[in-house]
Amino acid sequence: MKWQKAARLVTVLVGVATIAGVVVTMRTRQAHPAAATVARADPKAVAELSNGRMTQANGMHIPGFIDFKRSFPYEDGTVRFVEPKLTTTRAGREFHLSGLEATIGPKQANMIVTGDVVLKASDGLEARTDEASYSSGEAMVRVPRKIEFAKGRLRGSGIGMTYDEPREVMWLLDQAQITMAPERGKDPGLRIVAGTAGMARREKYFRFDRGFNATREGRVLSSDSAMAYLTDDEERLKSLELRGSSRIVMSGAIEGGLQSMDARDINLEYAEDGETLEHAVLAGQSVLQLAGATGQAGRRIAGEVIDVTVGPDGAVTSLVARDKVQLSLPASKDTPERVIRAASMDGTGEPGKGLTGARFNRDVEFREQRVGAPPRVARSRTLSLVLGANGGIDDAHFAGGTAFEDGTTRARAMEARYLVAKGQLLLSGALKDQPPTVSDDRLTVEATTIDLTFEGPKMIAKGNVQSVSQPATKGGDTKAGAHVPGLLKDDQPAYVTAAALDYDGALDKAIYTGGARLWQKDTAIAAESITVDEKTGDLYARDKNQVRSTLPLEQVDSKTGERTKVNSIALAKDMHYEDAVRRATYTTDAHVNGPPGDLRAVKIELYLVEGGGSLEKAEAYDQVSVVADGRTAKGQRMTYFAAEERYLMTGSPVNIVEQCRDTTCKVLTFFRSTDRVLCDGSEEKRTQTLDGGTCGQAAPK
Questions:
Q1: Fewer CB near the last or first residue (10 Å), C or N of the chain?
Q2: 470 DSSP assignment
Q3: What stretch of H or E contains 555?
Q4: Half-sphere CA count of 558, side-chain side, radius 13 A
Q5: CA–CA separation, 413 and 465 (whole Å)
């Protein structure tokens, strides 16, 4: 905005003051005597002169003269002129002042010019009014009515004017307007409107009061008052200060460029051309609006104080905001609305791009408002952002203690990196001796590092992983469709430790690896990896060395008949619990020590009663061996019925050894609590002596 053109308004004041000074310092020269006595036009005048010239008295410093059609001096020292025209020079310029009448008061204390008062200067200045006066005591020029002036493309007007000659200060007293016609084909020009407008030529500034409004080339500035500071040559604007209800609106801004500024007070600094804005300081409920991509809203920054630096293209290259800071990033078709609040903000940017990064300090709150979902909220001590195109965020780094909330999901860590486009949160660093933690209504996970993807959610935890699954709430599980494996009680918490965890919330599946151990009271499973599938209630465990599980199951004491809880210990390479059929399968070098006895086979299946806690039956496959109450049976296939304590074995052949008896058959049935043994479908009571008769019974013939 070419504010420097408005400086030429000063010329009007200087001219008026110069003319006034010349008039009051003149002395009446002798006019040419009239050729003949004529009738006097004003009987009160002591003389009447026509078509004369009054020149400056000797010794005065301002050269000049007055041409007049008539002149009437009076006894009190007053001189009245008809159609006067004063000519004088000052600062190398010639000025002409004319009017219908002019009066110089007694002792030349004041001068009044009335009727079509016109001031013209050799540099093209022209000013018009109805009346102007000058007081030598006050050294003040006054114009009580409307004054208009013009010089080249500059136009101005006001109602009433004062000019302080010693201080060289001029005021347009009311309805001040200054306009600058556009340069050919460039812009619509400049227009300034204010209640009053003043110019201090020595100090080289304009002041506008009782409202200030300036428009030019899509830019609108307004405030209660304003101060404009000019360069030494008065040709360009150095700075502008807006005070009270200050607002600046700029259309056509590039993406990331200044679009509007609002504050109680705004200070602006301009480049050497007096037109290009370089720096702005906003104070008092400040708001900065940046332009977005075509057709989209841009970023909005608020704070009590905002200090912003812009490049030649209007893009923000540096920004500092303090006290009640808020950065708002509007929603788009691909991203939700985001709002960041903090005590302070420091931003960096580049010409042509605008802000590319920002750092927030103290009491940071980051909020994403998603449609149809609860807000995603993060709080921390500091936050560093990498800002992308179209007003988006590429990366967010939280530090100094971070807490995230996303519906029922909560995350805590000393540091967190939020990959916004991916919806991924990377947690690290211990927070007051507490490692990174992610939890919801059912699951809590602690680890050295946790990578959380909100969509799903999905989670990868590494290093000293510890998880706790809370029991279902009264009336059912808090997560629709999820249920606890039947090996575990759904009214008690379950614990898992491991080196790593891979959790997929969409599949309701958690995979623990690296020395994994799951336990709930006396129930425990240890393996290289443990997978819990909450969608099906299944559980998988695998270890190239050995999976070990401990299940508390009811067992009948064969001697007393009492039912007691004993820990059933199972070993194998693989374990698979299927909740739909309540079956725990142990594969490869399987070994179970529990209600069926000491059972070994290639594969062993344990079927639990509904609700767990008791064995319904056991199945063993290939290379089966069972030891129970002094009996040892071997075969290829075995079924154990827990309610009857009955064993059914098949093979080629089946062999059972008990004390001194060794029985071999194709199909074997025996009972744990009795001596009954059924071989090939008939009850076998024959005893074969194995030690030469030491058992006290001869072998049958």
A1: C
A2: P
A3: strand 538-556
A4: 16
A5: 14
509/123 Cα distance (integer angstroms): 87
H and E: helices and strands count for the chain = 1, 46
CA–CA distance, 685 with 209 (Å, rounded to integer)? 123
Could you tell me the two tokens for 379? 């709080």
Instruction: With H, G, I as helix, E, B as strand and everything else as coil, classify residue 132.
Output: strand
Q: What is the pLDDT of residues 207-256, one digit of tens each?
A: 999 999 999 877 899 999 999 888 887 777 889 999 999 999 988 888 88
Determine the 3-state secondary structure of 480 from DSSP: coil
Instruction: State the CB neighbour count (10 A cutoff) for residue 91.
Output: 10
The residue with tokens 């999905």 is 458
DSSP 9: H
Residue 13 carries which DSSP code?
H
Determine the 3-state secondary structure of 124 from DSSP: coil
Contact indicator for 256, 353 with CB cutoff of 8 Å = yes
Q: Which amino acid is at 325?
A: V
Tokens of 439: 């939890």
Q: CA-to-CA distance for 326 and 303, rounded, in angstroms?
A: 6
> CATH topology for 535-683?
lipopolysaccharide transport protein A fold (2.60.450)
Candidate from 377-381, 429-433, 615-619 with smallest mean pLDDT = 429-433
Secondary element (H or E) of residue 14: helix 9-24
Q: How many CB atoms lie within 10 A of CB 465?
A: 24
CA-CA distances (angstroms) from residue 241 to 6, 264, 283, 291? 16, 11, 11, 23
CA dihedral 180, 183, 186, 190 (to 10 degrees): 0
Q: Answer for the pair 530, 518: CB distance below 8 angstroms, yes or no.
A: yes
The per-residue pLDDT for range 64-81, each reduced to its tens digit, is 788 999 999 888 888 899
